[in-house]
Every structure is written in structure tokens, then in C-alpha cells.
Amino acid sequence: MNNEETPLSPRLPVGTRYLPGYLFLVVLPLVAVVALVQSLGNSGVAALPGADSIVSSGHRLLLAIAVILAVTRLFGALLRLVGQPSVVGEITAGIILGPSVLGLLLPEATAWLFPADVVPSLETLSQFGVILFMFLVGREMPLDLLRRSGGTALALAQVSTVIPFLFGALLAAWALGDYRTNGTPLLALVLFVGVAFAITAFPVLARILHEQKLADTPVGTLGLATAGAGDAIAWCLLMVVSAVIGNGSLLSAFVACALVIGYGGALIAFVRPAMPRLVAAFERSGHTAVAAFLLCCVFASAWITDSIGAHAIFGAVLAGLILPRDSATVREVLGKIEGLTMWLLLPLFFAVVGLKLDLASIGGPADWGILALIIVVAAVGKIAGVAVFARLLGHDWRSSTGLGLMMNCRGVTELIVLQIGLSLGVLSPRLFTMLTCMALVTTAVTGPLLRRLQLHTAPARSAA
């Protein structure tokens, strides 16, 4: 190697060589900027309208999110210690952060932590969480279990939907008329309460059964298949009821439902078979491209059903149903989406529910008596109806009762339905509070009662 100087070899010390360029390209422009700012500052520049409120809102939103995540995780962990699914603790945390507990004990703290300009942002984020959660629910629908269970799961699902729907409708017509919002037809309330009673939370039930090692037993498998089919039936009922309430006429509701059914049929018939090829095409560009594609699918589908006149969650569920079940890339991407949803967005949803729930609105013995009646009727409709029908199908009483208890689990799915009812104006804040309490109680008792039944020792019986 020769000692000749290369073109990149500096003839001058580095500092000396770059000093003229630094002075000309950095120092002089900086001096010019300072001079310009100084000259403009003398004219008195007013703050931009709304700038302070935007900064304050963003500042408070960050703190509110941090507090919500910390409290929900804490209560989720505490409830797991006593044998409850973490979602029960997270729902409880949302209630504690609202006016029922924190607002009652420290109203100034609640007003400071959740000011009026922060709540809309929390609601928007929580709606994203609901859409993504329902997308995951659609993806986890136990289609294989439904096929293997023959007609048993579908028959049980129909009973677990129809009987509670009837019980809820009768109770609403008889005792809940005074809990309507002004101008809400009694028919709308009757239909919506019926749907609320008919809901089963498949995701929470699946978690409970896995924790108790029941998911792979015959009764657990049948329970999951029944819950999945029941969810599908209940969502169809909710779509019809929401369309009737939202469109104001049976004809408009029929058109909206027909459009959603046609849209779902088109997705399953034409898009679902093409999804493996589409995923493979995006996979060539990496997992990020697949994630962007899936997110575009879910939000576009949600927008379509929302534009039709049904709720956005129906589009999210349909988007989940058409995903390929055997793609490792889809599973990995969905795992990341699930983490974002379960760790961040869904706790915000629980907090929003808690902010709208006020136990103090339940005043006097009459209201508490109605609340107790709601819980009892909701539980009896699910447990007794399913247990009796399962016994007629040949299951022993222990397994039949276990299936009824499984269908009585309502969880997050029920809260989503109740939020829709509140946003549509069908449920008053007081009735929303009562039905939320019903959802929390029926979910909380599912695990302990199933544990007492000791279904592991129940006689084995085919789910078919």
C-alpha cells in the first residue's frame, strides 16, 4: 500500500477544514432565525386559539391512561388470586374509578383525573378496542367444534338464547317500563333487555374453562361449541333489534339486516376462499404488511356495516370469520393485535363503562329489589333452561347444570351490548347500571360454581 494521499484524506485538521462551512451553513442561519423571531416578537404574537386546551387535554389523557392501566392490571391480578378471571377484576377496576366509588369518596380527584375534555378521547380509544376485540371474537369462533358437535350444540344454543330472551322481555314489559329514557318505546326496551339476557361471553368462558382444565373434556367442548353458536345467534338478534331501534321502522330495519346478511354472505362465499392467497401475497413484504392488511380489513368491514345502519361490531366479527385458520403468520400478527387490545384498549373500555355507571343512582329498596330480580331472572333463564334441555338430551344432571352455568357467563360481551343500548338511548343510566351489575355478578359466579361441580369426575359423554 503506497503512502499517496487519498481524495478523502484531509489536508487540514478536521476542525479547520469544516469551520467555514459550519459558520456559513449553521451559525449564520441560526443568527438569522434569532433575529427574525426577535423582530416578530416585538409585534406581540397572541397564542393560537385552543392551543392551551389541546396541550392540557393531551397531558391529562396520558395520565388518565396510565392510571387506568395500573388500576385494571392490579385488580385483575388480585381477582385471579381468588380464582376469578382477570376480566372480572378489570371490570371492577373500571367501576371503582367511576362515580360509584372514587367519585363518591374523592369527587375532586375524579373530576381532575377524568375532566370533560378527556372522556371523549377515552371513549374513542375504547371503541377501537371494542372493534378489535370483536374481530378477535370472530376469529376465535369454534367453527370446527360446531361441525363436530352435530346438532347438539346448535340446539342447546337456541335454548340458551330463546328462553333468556323470553324471560328478559317479560321482565322488561312487566317491571322495567319506569326505567326507560324519555321517548323510548316500551317495545324497544323489551327487545333490548331480551337480547341482554340472551348473551353469553364466549371469550371469557373459554378462559375460565382453560384455567380449570375443562376445555378438552366432553362437557367443556360442548360448552364452548354451544357458547360460540349462542354468540352468533345473539349477535343476529342484536343486529335486528339495533336496526329496528336505529332506523325507526320495520321496513328500514329489514333492509339494513338484509344488506348485512348479503354482505356477510359475499364475504364468506367470495373473500374467505381468497384470503389465504391474499395473506401469502402480503407476507412476501413481511409481517408488517400482513398486519396493515388485516387492520384495513377489520376497520373497512366495520365501516361498511356501520354505514348500512347496523353497528360496526358486526363488520368486525365478519372480518374475523373470514381469516384463514391455519396461517402461522396470521396467528402471530393476531397475537400482537390481541396484546394491544387486551393490555391497552379494553381496559380503557372498562374505565369508560365505569365512568357511566353510578351505583348511587339505584336508590331505595324498590330499585335494589328490581336489581336482585334482574340478576335472579337472568341466571334462572340461562341455567335452568339449558340444564333441563341438556338433561332431555341424555346428559346427567351434573353435566347439564355445568352447561347451564357456562351459558350464564356474560363478561365483556354483555358490556359491549349494554354500551350499545346506552348509546342508542334505549337504556337509561340507572338501568344500564343495573344490567352491568347483573353482568358482573353472573360472570363472577361462573368459575366458583363450576369448580364446586367438579365436572372432571362427571361421566364422559360424546358431544355429538
Structure description:
The structure is a single chain. The protein is mainly alpha-helical and 464 residues long. It has 19 helices and no strands. Helix 16 crosses helix 17. The N terminus is likely disordered.
- What structural category characterises the helix and strand content? mainly alpha
Strand content: under 5%
Estimate the global geometry from the Cα principal axes.
globular
Uncertain segments are 3-10
Number of DSSP helical runs: 19
What is the terminal-to-terminal distance? 83 Å
Rg calc:
28 Å
Largest sheet descriptor:
none
Strand runs, count: 0
Series of secondary-structure elements, N-terminal to C-terminal: HHHHHHHHHHHHHHHHHHH
Mean pLDDT level? 85
Helix percent band: over 70%
Task: Provide tags for this entry.
464 residues; 19 helices; single chain; 78% helix; disordered N terminus; mainly alpha; globular
Q: How do the helices and strands line up, and which of them pair or pack?
A:
Blueprint (H helix, E strand, L loop, with lengths): L13 H28 L9 H31 L4 H12 L4 H4 L1 H7 L5 H21 L3 H6 L3 H24 L10 H13 L3 H10 L6 H30 L2 H34 L3 H22 L3 H10 L6 H29 L7 H29 L4 H11 L3 H14 L4 H25 L11
Summarize the structure.
The chain is mainly α and 464 residues long.
